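Hey, I'm writing a tutorial for new members on how sequence and structure tokens pair up, and I'd like a real worked example in the thread rather than a made-up one. If someone can provide the structure for the chain below, I'll link this post from the tutorial.
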Amino acid sequence: MLHIRQRTTAAASWAARGYPALMRWKPGRPEVPLLYWALNEVGAAVASEDIDAINDLLDEAELLLERIWTEPVDGSRRRRDVMAISTGLWSEVQRGRGASDLTEVALHARLLRSLVAPATGQLAVRPPEAVAPYRPAGERIRGGRLPLTGRTSVRGRVLPEQFLLLLALVLSNGRGHLVDSETGRIPRGTDPAKVGWKRPDQPAGVRLGSIRGEDLSSADLFLRPRPCLNAVTKWVRRRPVIDADRWSVDDIGWALAATWLTDTTLVIEPKSVVRLHTAPWPVVADQASEPVWRMPLGIYHPHQLHSGTGGWRTSPTPLRPVPDR
């Protein structure tokens, strides 16, 4: 009788041991915990079928994995197992991602998270640089979108909602203006009076940001943090609906990022990894990039920045043929 003994792969050996964590959470090396939390949020994003969030989380995971893979090789068995298992799992994540097989993406991301989980009994503390807990689009603002200003109280709402509602008041009262990101003029399709333009050639106050796009499903709002906060603070001092004097750019920025309303930027340098609550974008085309808060314009009521008659230009609904009955 022949006895054939086949060497087990690193992944099979890992599975037989119950998928223990193999990447150590070393002091001063943030890549492993940051990777853990990025992978931790993939499952919730998959459950919501949020393709944009899934892609962002996986892009971040890829950068952190590359950082781990390029560490100096120590030649240990643990190191070889980590490399073999993580590269294999990552290829499976990418395969599912390319085929839009979200179930496979979530499964292999969860296994990869097990590889970088903290040791048994160790509390997984989310560091400040880690991605915030995922929030589905409908839960990022109470009710799914902001109400029209003047029809609701700013009090009693969370910080990012208070700030965005006050910003709409600032614009509609001519204490600042928005521009079209391509032309630098009145944003296309908007009501000039609601975006801070007195006349087609006369914007009011400082430029607070720009609008890119016209469709509700794809338009973005780019806000300049410091000018926006200054304008809101001045407005509140004259009409003290809330105490905003203690707000800072960081307060607002991290609050927006924590609710998944804005992009963040992960800066990976040779000796550090830092997350910023701004993203580098040009407010107006052909101008230099600057730190901005970028968020979907659809968080506002359709008539907040547009006229009540025209409203948004929405995507057309496809026609569906119905069989003759």
